User: Which sequence fits this backbone?
């Protein structure tokens, strides 16, 4: 359930996708692929409308908490870890990089 209680996000690790429903009536069901070995969903920001992020072995998928729509996908070669300061560390082209999990990245 998004922090603003508008959308319900159901993670399916067998099919590597997330299903998004309207939290009030379970309508407007949409299914989004989220990458190989999808394993975690997180909403970290302090605001009610902070993005909901689904993490897999090879991508992070960002969703708008206000409308349930997919808004950004960051693809990478391998997930490494989530740091204490809420950055996702990943490997791309044999280089470790990071993106924030508390805001929407620009690239």
Assistant:
């Amino acid at each position: 359930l998004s922090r603003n209680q508008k959308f319900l996000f159901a993670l399916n690790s067998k099919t590597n996708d997330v299903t998004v429903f309207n939290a009030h009536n379970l309508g407007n069901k949409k299914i989004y692929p989220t990458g190989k070995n999808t394993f975690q969903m997180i909403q970290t920001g302090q605001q009610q409308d902070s993005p909901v992020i689904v993490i897999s072995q090879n991508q992070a998928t960002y969703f708008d908490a206000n409308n349930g729509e997919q808004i950004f996908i960051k693809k990478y070669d391998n997930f490494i870890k989530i740091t204490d300061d809420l950055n996702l560390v990943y490997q791309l082209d044999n280089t470790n990089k990071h993106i924030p999990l508390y805001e929407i990245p620009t690239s």
